[in-house]
Description:
The protein is mainly α and 92 residues long. It is 67% helix and 7% strand. It has 3 helices and 2 strands. It has helices at 9-23, 25-40, 47-77; strands spanning 2-4, 80-82. Strands 1-2 form a two-stranded antiparallel ribbon. The longest helix has 31 residues, at 47-77.
Amino acid sequence: MIIYMPMQASEVEPTRKLMGLMAQFPTVFWNYANSIAELMLSDDESAGEQLAQLVAAMKADAEKAEGIRRTLAPILARAEISDPDARKGGLQ
């Protein structure tokens, strides 16, 4: 099975970069989760302020991810599947 993603030549490199950013998302998420867990167990008086900073950073990263999603969605929507031997069946 081959998946074709028709795009203009000018879209190729930016798309590669965006996919690289999306690949980092799980690591970013776990870093936030670990930092929040540490703060929840901390006796540090500034934990609330640090937590607020983390939440603000998470929101900023979520906005960036939404922008990436909006950029990639139309490209992925144009994807076409070629399975001439019908080996894989339909996508689910």
